[in-house]
Amino acid sequence: MLKVNDINVYYGNIHALKGVSLEIHQGEIVTLIGANGAGKSTLLKTLSGLLKPKSGEILFENEHLAGKVPQLIVKKGISHVPEGRRVFANMSVEENLELGAYLRKDKQGIREDFEKVYQLFPRLYERRKQLSGTLSGGEQQMLAMGRALMARPRLLLLDEPSMGLAPLLVKTIFQIIEEINKTGTTILLVEQNANMALSIADRAYVIETGNIVASGRASDLGQSDQIRKAYLGGH
Fold it and tell me: Which intervals hold domain ABC transporter (predicted)?
């Protein structure tokens, strides 16, 4: 479904991604784990068109996407839930969700997707007329995910969905990620909580200072002593 071949991304003179290659198959949950500053968010921003790679290729369903504008990438079926939620604080929950469907013209489908999002996140339905800036961190995370789903993505990029949330809410968010995946949406998950991420993912990649240093089945990486020591708090 998605193939990334040897991409190099720079911030000015800083070489942020160094020849990164990975692939994601239809229907999978793939997680990308690594320390802060390893290049995880940079990779997601490059996939969604917010950053342009200096070299390498990004193929989504055999179509070249590297360097394309973000709205075109959304149109092709990739939605990005950014780190830090980034909801439009002065707009209501409902207006934020409407913006997620900005590129769509199918009114009936949009109505159906509103229903689906409210079923997935009942709290958003209760708060639908409320300004997004007044929501709790967990509710804002739900809204950011719901907004991305309104574009009907085939691939959902999630950047740190559990950041700053209470443990109970983290559990809820991860259950919802699994539910979204069960409806047929493929997911690339970037997550500091490596234990949780590996517990729901099919496969995983480990990134260190812009290089992919390990990859494999999530369950195997979760058992690896080296990975446990570095990322899972094991000894």
Answer: 2-234
As given in the structure block, the two tokens for residue 28 are 């999978």
| pTM, two decimal places | 0.88
CA distance 9 to 26: 25
User: 């899972």: which residue's tokens?
Assistant: 232
Question: pLDDT tens digit string along 23-47?
Answer: 999 999 999 998 888 899 999 999 9
Which tokens in the block code for residue 111? 């109505």
Residues 184, 195, 82, 168, CA torsion sign = positive
Short-list 39, 190, 76, 14, CA closest to 177: 190
Q: Dihedral, CA atoms, 182, 187, 192, 194, nearest 10 degrees?
A: 60
What are residue 60's DSSP bridge partners? 2, 63
Complete domains list, the chain, with CATH: 2-87+154-231 (3.40.50.300)
> Measured between alpha carbons, how far is 211 from 106 in angstroms, rounded to an integer?
41
pLDDT digits (tens, 9 = 90+) for 105-116: 888 888 988 888
CA atoms within 13 A on the CB side of 118: 14
